[in-house]
Structure formats: C-alpha cells, structure tokens
C-alpha cells in the first residue's frame, strides 16, 4: 500500500530479516556496521498502522467510550488498525468509523502522521472527516464495547487538555486551535510517499 509518512521516519532496512511473527508485533533484525567498523545486530519491531478520526457531525465532534477486556474503558476518537485488506489509509479510517459509530462522512483530510516510537515501524494517521451522511447501526469488533457521543468543540478541547483517555494524544492539534472552523481548515499532511 502506498502511504505518506513523516520525512524523518525510521524504517526497517530492506535487508532486515523477520525473526518472529506475533499477533500484532513482528521482530526484525539486521547486521549493522558501527562507526568503529565493528558489526552488531540491530532490531526493530513492526506492527499494523493505526487510524484515528476526528469526525465532525454538524457542529459536534464524535468521541467514543471504548471498553476492551484487557484495559477497561477509555475515551478516544474512533479508529483502529489498518488491515491488510484495506486498500488505503482513508479506506481503513472509513471502515473503522462506520464499525464503531455507524457514521459515513463525505469529506476526509489527512492532517497528521506520527511515528510514536522510533524502534517500531508503526504510523498513526490522524484524519478529519466532516459532512456526515446517513447514520447506520455500529458494528464493533467482538472485543470492544463502544458508546459514541457527540461533544462541542469546547468540551472536546477541555477533554484533550485534561488528557482524558487517549484524547490527550491529539494535544498537538486540538491544543493549538480554538473552534471547529479552525479544525476544518487544518492543512493536508505533507510527507514522503512510500510503499510498505
């Protein structure tokens, strides 16, 4: 799949060998020559990328209460893993929003891509979606209990500033804007295109 990543992203070298395949994480190793001309084995993890969607329905923003068996309930934006069957990052985001909230959106914009850990080839894609269409019943995964709700921008900003659940991870975006118009005016992410 072709995707955009940050210009300073760290990728697993092409010559690396996968030495372990897990349910989520794979371990890659490769020989790396050091500055003193010795050689050591370097290692990185790889996992599926993640999409996070700030969905704007009218003058409200979608927030979910996401309960999973291994960590309890947390507030977050709709989102989840990019599956191998997703043909694009936006397709993954659309699928996750529909599954978790039942919402369709007409407009989409990728506004940020982050690599949370430089020793893991894993990217988190933050998208804004707006102009909601007809709402369907949500269909969360078996390991999720999800309750969607709509909040005002001011309420969302306070949740982000309070670092409620996973919402605090959007502080670099939500913390610097003051209203919905500014959110919807955020520019498209510009990065380097890769096929991974």
Give the secondary structure arrangement, pairings included.
Blueprint lengths: L1 E4 L11 E5 L4 E8 L5 E8 L3 E8 L2 E9 L3 E5 L2 E3 L7 H13 L3 E10 L5 E2 L2 E9 L12 E7 L1 H9 L9 H4 L5 H5 L7 E4 L1
Parallel strand pairs: 4-10, 5-11
Antiparallel strand pairs: 1-13, 2-3, 3-4, 5-6, 5-8, 6-7, 6-12, 9-11
Descriptive notes:
The chain is of the alpha+beta class and 196 residues long. Helix content is 16%, strand content 42%. The protein folds into two domains: 45 residues, no CATH class; 139 residues, Nucleoside Triphosphate Pyrophosphohydrolase (Alpha-Beta Complex). The strands form three sheets. Strands 5, 6, 7, 8, 9, 11 and 12 form a seven-stranded mixed sheet that branches. A hairpin with a 3-residue loop joins strand 6 and strand 7.
What class would the helix/strand composition place it in? alpha+beta
What helical percentage do the residues reach? 10-25%
Helix count, per DSSP?
Answer: 4
Query: Using DSSP, what is the number of strands?
Result: 13
Average pLDDT, all residues: 95
CATH overall fold name of the largest domain = Nucleoside Triphosphate Pyrophosphohydrolase
Return residue spans where pLDDT drops below 50 for at least 5 consecutive residues: none
Q: According to CATH, what is the class of the largest domain? A: Alpha Beta
The assigned CATH architecture of the largest domain is Alpha-Beta Complex
Bulk shape: globular
Backbone CA Rg: 18 Å
């Amino acid at each position: 799949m072709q995707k955009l990543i940050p210009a300073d992203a760290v990728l697993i070298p092409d010559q690396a060998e996968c030495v372990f395949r897990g349910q989520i994480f794979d371990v890659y190793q490769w020989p790396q020559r050091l500055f003193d001309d010795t050689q050591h084995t370097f290692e990185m993890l790889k996992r599926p990328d993640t999409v996070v969607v700030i969905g704007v329905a009218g003058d409200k923003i979608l927030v979910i209460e996401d309960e999973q068996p291994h960590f309890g309930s947390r507030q977050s934006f709709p989102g989840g893993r990019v599956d191998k069957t997703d043909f694009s990052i936006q397709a993954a985001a659309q699928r996750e929003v529909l599954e978790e909230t039942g919402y369709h959106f007409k407009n989409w914009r990728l506004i940020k891509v982050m690599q949370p850990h430089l020793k893991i080839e894993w990217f988190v894609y933050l998208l804004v979606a707006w102009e909601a269409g007809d709402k369907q019943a949500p269909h969360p995964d078996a390991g999720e209990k999800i309750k969607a709700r709509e909040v005002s921008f001011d309420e969302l900003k306070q949740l982000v500033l309070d670092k409620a659940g996973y919402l605090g991870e959007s502080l670099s975006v939500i913390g610097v804007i003051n209203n919905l118009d500014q959110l919807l005016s955020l520019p498209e992410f510009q990065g380097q295109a890769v096929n991974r």
